[in-house]
Amino acid sequence: MRGTWGTHDSIITAVTQSLMEKCSKNRLEELQAMMGRLAFRRRLAGRFALSLTVLLAGWTFAQAQDAAPAAPVAAQQPAPAENAAPTPYPVYPHWQEDLAAWRAAREKEIGAPDGWLTLVGMEWLQPGVNSIGGAADNKIRVHAKVPDHIGQLIVLGKKPENTPPGGQPQEGQTVQLLAPSGGFPPDLMIDGKPVQEGQLTVDGPSPSTISWHSVTMVALRRGDRFALRIKDANSPARAGFKGLNWFAPNPHYRIRAAWTPYTPNRTVKIPTALGTTIDLPAPGFVEFVLDDKPVNLEPVLEDPERKTLFFILRDVTNDIETYGTARFLYTGLPDHGLDKPGTLILDFNLLENPPCAYTSYAACPRPPDENQLPVAIEAGERLYAPQ
Q1: How many Cβ atoms are within 10 Å of 4's Cβ, its own excluded?
Q2: Domain covering 118-238 assigned CATH 2.40.30.40 in the classification
Q3: pLDDT higher than 70, residue 72
Q4: For residue 387, what pLDDT is reported?
Q5: Cα separation of 281 and 299, whole Å?
Q6: Where are the domains of the chain?
Q7: Is the dihedral of CA 370, 372, 378, 381 positive or negative?
């Protein structure tokens, strides 16, 4: 028996020595402890098979552990190199809670007293006099509970003949508000104050707002024309609003994409539902792989003052499960800024419908050809179904 164990001992010793040489430092103490336990078991007759089995298991364990990184992959993942291949991006601990909060805020925004469900009219203003009110004899009839005659909007000035289609009205063109023949109706306000005749502000972030109880009206530039946007906080669409429809949260659609800037920046023409185009700056594009298909997307800067990229896109779900024209995605800026290669997190669970999904009076932008995706993005907001 001693001679047999002597032979077995030499085999185990040889295997152990080889194992020690293969093993990394961080596994050495663990293996030495294992050898100590085996030393006791070797003294028991008939236990050689057990010792050798455990030793071989230890060999396999050490090989597998040395081949793996010493720390979790997420903890030591290096910063992506410029133009690194895009990969799925893991969610953070409170991702679902944040997504739920965003969805709740989105529903509150849509159902707000001035939200898109309140839009009941978008009428073009013609040169000269445009009478507005609830009566049928007005040029612009307001389909809400309003006085028969509210006022007159006067478009003054003439657009030069050489203004290109889609061009802006000239600075000399103005819109003025005048009283109807019987005077302004009681309670009519402009920018929260009793109404007075005068020129309206039609540009910038704070255009003049004419209001009468639940109804508001704003004159806006739209390409080479002016339009009157009419909202009613008591609209039937808002009264019947019961919430939005969503895909279930899915981390598969949270993606790290490679960002490539344009040098110099491009200006792209974004088509709209009105048949006009909007010129917006495009600072670069993103690349990623989704469902084994390479995808490119080009964002625009809707407002250069905001630190937000605006993606207008279509995918295979449009016209079936999501709104047909497009969906929108707003993101932050790339990790190295707009002017350097880097990465950008795209969470398609934040996809939202455009305003024209809720009202036929909205003038929504359409996606450029580059943003027609060959994949189905089953994430974010689904097709809105009025109750």
Answers
A1: 10
A2: no
A3: no
A4: 67
A5: 9
A6: 2-67, 87-109+242-371, 118-238
A7: positive
* Whether 67 contacts 28, CB under 8 Å: no
Place of tokens 């085999």: 11
- Provide the pairing of β-strand 293-297 with 277-290: antiparallel
Q: Is the pLDDT of residue 154 over 70?
A: yes
- Beta-strand ranges (E) seen in 272-303 are 277-290, 293-297
Residue with tokens 């509210």: 150
Token pair of 254, please?
Answer: 């949270």
Helix, strand counts (H, E) of the chain: 6, 18
In contact, 226 and 202? CB cutoff 8 Å:
yes
Provide the H-helix boundaries in 68-94: 73-76
* C-alpha distances out from residue 375 to 296, 298, 314, 346, 371, Å: 11, 16, 9, 15, 11
Give the number of other Cβ atoms within 10 Å of residue 230's Cβ: 24
Provide the pairing of β-strand 128-133 with 140-141. Answer: parallel
Tokens 């939005």 -> residue: 244
Point out which residues pair with 294 in neighbouring strands. Answer: 289
CB 228 within 8 A of CB 153: yes
- Distance from the Cα of residue 39 to its chain's centroid: 62
User: How far is 185 from 132, CA to CA, in rounded Å?
Assistant: 12
Query: Residue 94 corresponds to which tokens in the numbers above?
Result: 């409170």
Q: How far is CA 102 from CA 106, 109, 221, 380, in A?
A: 6, 10, 31, 11
Using CA atoms, how far apart are residues 77 and 84, in angstroms rounded to an integer?
Answer: 13
Q: Quote the CA–CA distance of 359 and 238 in Å, as a whole number.
A: 11
Pairwise CA distance, residues 293 & 377, whole Å: 12
Of the chain, the percentage scoring pLDDT greater than 90 comes to 63
Burial 255-281 (b: 16+ CB within 10 A, else e): bbbbbbbeeeeeebebbbbeebbbebe
